[in-house]
Amino acid sequence: MSRHSSIPFFAALMTSAVVQAGEVTIAPKPFTVEHSFSAAALPAAPVLLKIEPEAWGAFEITSIATHGAKVESGAVLVSFDSEGYTEKLEDTRREVAAGELALAQADLEFKTMKETAPHQLEAVRTAAKIAKEENEYFIKVRRKAAEEGAEQSLKRNKQYLASEQEELKQLEKMYAEDDLTEETEEIILVRQRDAVETAEFALRMEVLDHERTLKVLIPREAEDLANKDRDAAIALAKTEEELPRQIQMKEAELVAARTAHTRAKESLAELEADKGLFEFKAPADGWFYYGGIEEGRWTTGEAVKALVVHGLAPVNKGFASFIPADSALELVAFVDETVARGLSVGAVGGAVVSGREEVSVPVKLTALDETPGTDGLYRATLSAEWPKEVVLAPGSTVEVHLLAYEKADALAVPNKALTAGAKGWTIEVKLADGKTERRVVQRGRAGKEETEIVSGIEAGQVVVVP
User: Fold this and answer.
1) pLDDT of the residue at 8
2) What is the pTM of this model?
3) Which of 94, 161, 165, 222 is a plausible cystine mate for 199, CB 3.0–4.6 Å?
């Protein structure tokens, strides 16, 4: 129904007669169904202020406009302390730079190890081979040769001593045949006696060396060579097993360095993405409101208490709203299932503003959710033709009256006259002889006081009302 219908909207209040207990004569008359509910006047295009950071989490307020303030385009609505963020940003940049160097070093070490590992393994194999060959050669050849050499050295010293002793003996015998030993002969004898003494000393030393060589040096060398052979074999086995693992570890370190560097760069990118979150400015002329306007609801709650200087603004949640000056106010309501089922888009009616009850604001239902929200209520959106004399602040509440159904010549009975039974809905009708009978009827739409009857009764019949 439009505002210019032949039956005004508030005619329902006049045409619904007050029913008294007794009898009612059925006659065609206008029948309407109206639904009333509260609605909030909200801007159609609010700008929600919400901090949605990628990384930073602490937004301490340094300045904030007052609630309901009228602001000009470009005005600072709220600003936050960015000192801690700036320090974190610089630290992360340095971390990325250090990670770049660490990654380059890890890459170099991996490549170097991969290239040099075969050479290292070959060197260890060669050392093990040489140690084994030296040990085997000592066991098979050199030990016996060393022992024989010691024996030969001892033998030579013994022979040398015997030779010197024999020569001294011959000289003494030769010079003893002369009656007088000449000075030259005495010198020769002295020299020979010194030679014998030296040979005796050399023999004694050789005996000691011979004993040490056989009992200490050769066994010690044998043990040393055996140990080197054993240790070289162990080193080779260890290197053969360890080198591939070391290469894998270096590769893992390289992968870890790459991963750490990638994450550091991602963290830096996320932090840099938060750079623009420390100040909100008005995108146009308008009003600044504390609390969020989302999904047709203006919510404040405990979060609004933090909207003071040094307070911490909530993140990932609307904490304030900017309302453009040219944003039209629409009405948003949340109705229960009974009301929602009785309404349809296009329904018209009026809204009453508290304190200005003499003014009726024409409204029209423009949208109605088909499914309820989590609270079981259905969202309804209405347009309004606001008169100049009514200036509402966003968030104001009005009382809406919508005409859900209208028929000019309906047959209706008082709700009290209807009874539900096994056969359906029935009413008690008075007959011509004064008696009554119960008849089955089919209901139409139901109002607060009366219900439309679409079949089962006729105009002029009298219905008994308990």
Assistant:
1) 40
2) 0.61
3) 161
